[in-house]
UniProtKB/TrEMBL annotation, chains A, B:
Coiled-coil portions: none
Recorded topology in the membrane: Single-pass type II membrane protein
InterPro entries: Glycosyltrans_GT2/GT47, GT64_dom, Nucleotide-diphossugar_trans
Enzyme class, broadest EC rank: transferase
Cell location: Endoplasmic reticulum membrane
Record key words, sorted: Disulfide bond, Glycoprotein, Glycosyltransferase, Manganese, Membrane, Metal-binding, Signal-anchor, Transferase, Transmembrane, Transmembrane helix
Residues annotated as transmembrane: 20-42
Function statement: Glycosyltransferase required for the biosynthesis of heparan-sulfate and responsible for the alternating addition of beta-1-4-linked glucuronic acid (GlcA) and alpha-1-4-linked N-acetylglucosamine (GlcNAc) units to nascent heparan sulfate chains.
Protein name stated in the entry: Exostosin-like 2
Family the UniProt entry places it in: Belongs to the glycosyltransferase 47 family.
Catalytic activity of the protein: 3-O-(beta-D-GlcA-(1->3)-beta-D-Gal-(1->3)-beta-D-Gal-(1->4)-beta-D-Xyl)-L-seryl-[protein] + UDP-N-acetyl-alpha-D-glucosamine = 3-O-(alpha-D-GlcNAc-(1->4)-beta-D-GlcA-(1->3)-beta-D-Gal-(1->3)-beta-D-Gal-(1->4)-beta-D-Xyl)-L-seryl-[protein] + UDP + H(+)
Main location class: endoplasmic reticulum
Amino acid sequence: RYLHFCKLPGRVMGIRLLHFTSVVIIVLLLVAGALTALLPNIKDDKMPNLRREPKTQSQSALDSFTLIMQTYNRTDLLLKLLNHYQAIPHLHKVIVVWNNVGEKIPEETWNSLGPHPVPVVFKVQTVNRMRNRLQNFPELETKAVLMMDDDTLVSAHDLAFAFSVWQQFPEHIVGFVPRKHISTPSGVYSYGSFELQNPGFGNGDQYSMVLIGAAFFHSGYLEDFQRQPEAVYTLIDETQNCDDIAMNFLVAKHTGKPSGVFVKPVDIRNLEKDTNSGYSGMWHRAEHLLQRSYCVNKLVNIYDGMPLKYSNIMIAQFGFPNYANHKNKM
Amino acid sequence: RYLHFCKLPGRVMGIRLLHFTSVVIIVLLLVAGALTALLPNIKDDKMPNLRREPKTQSQSALDSFTLIMQTYNRTDLLLKLLNHYQAIPHLHKVIVVWNNVGEKIPEETWNSLGPHPVPVVFKVQTVNRMRNRLQNFPELETKAVLMMDDDTLVSAHDLAFAFSVWQQFPEHIVGFVPRKHISTPSGVYSYGSFELQNPGFGNGDQYSMVLIGAAFFHSGYLEDFQRQPEAVYTLIDETQNCDDIAMNFLVAKHTGKPSGVFVKPVDIRNLEKDTNSGYSGMWHRAEHLLQRSYCVNKLVNIYDGMPLKYSNIMIAQFGFPNYANHKNKM
């Protein structure tokens, strides 16, 4: 009895200790919740993909970009473009996505004509797929990716300026080719360019996509692309098209902002006619544009909504090409 | 003894309770510290001055701006400009800073020609000072301020677009007139425009200031201006100049970024010659530009460093005025 009586307060104490410990734990949990709720906001707004970058990066890798160029049936043009691009400022490495399945890469020619300013890696593909260029390549060491179609030439000046713009807008696709979707009364979306206009939108134009065939974007988005619904890959593979539209959906979803920032190019050229293969790009196919409208509507279904947002911002370099372009001289 | 013995665990329990309570308190303190350390970062980066805005704001006040126009010796021009500007989109209120000391405000004429779309407040000044326009006016209810010189006309389209740009860059001065400083080998700074170039800067041009005589900026910066070193006010008053340079120093110091974002105007006009007063602006004075270089060097001494940073970004509206301006048609 005596002992029993005296143990009582002990038990009470035990219960109270338990009670206080749980208070501490609950507080810590709430707090952890609050903190993690705050932190992503900062990251998401500033550098969306930094946290998904385990690679430790050299200083040069931080202030430079990797050129990713997919090539098919235009090796002569590829070699020309490699010569053009291999000396542009801030270029860290070139990754050539070799879609000429079963065909030998031009490594011998390339090496016999060395030395070259930056390493060029040929990534031999087993299937000729549009989305091969959207892999998260292990050779990719920079945060910045410059993706170029294998028939497009952009001046070193435009690239240097666009890269400096990307460094200020790292969560966006910063590029030279804007496009847009418009919604029609039937609720069906249509894909196009300056020939389309949303009803009642007044002065000027808008864009809701920036094509990745001539653009800078964050390498983290290549990681994100690996985690998309299977239906997205099927859509891209069955059309051999729209991988760039899908990337704009992905970025718009990630940021909640317009996916792209349009930089007005001073000198951009299509070299397609320079190839001896006579091969002309997929976009010449009669169904190309209809396919892209089709893709926009499909992607809206897959992602259960339209994430694309409109922008009307066009960025050009101040004082270039003429020092007086801040006067009304356009 | 028996009682005494039985009280013992009680005391022990008391001590442990005390211990656990203090744990909870310390945890909460650490956490509060962590949270407050995080929160300002977000604000500083996004909306630098929101926290300095006690005024509760109507929805219209959030999506609109206040036009602040300082006038001296050009009442005829003022009335013309008021008619031009009183109907521009998103205009919430007009504040006229009346520097015609001792002269009657044109309230009668104004009211006799009503009704007017938005309220116009005449702020009668007792001294004719350049910096009168940089007061934190109690009538100011919007976050956005549009400051215009009393001889400058900018198209409604340019203003609507620039306002939409400011909403995306609220911590910057978003305006139509870029200027820059350059450093000379002697370490002396010089003030100018496109005629000056930093040695070895290569293609294009840069700016480090956007003049507030035709610009949007955050009303919080008017509050900041009231807290500057006395020497700044003295400099502005003795030169009757450079208040706009001082504002660029202030914003650059606050953001650690370029103070301004330059929006390329499509239609901006100087109406100075339209005044019957024959009065021509201060900037016609022979010493005007030399004074401004003088001010830059003075401000560097006052603020103990050069906060101004360069930008080469020029923003124009996509697809305006011609739909094909994303091609190389400049």
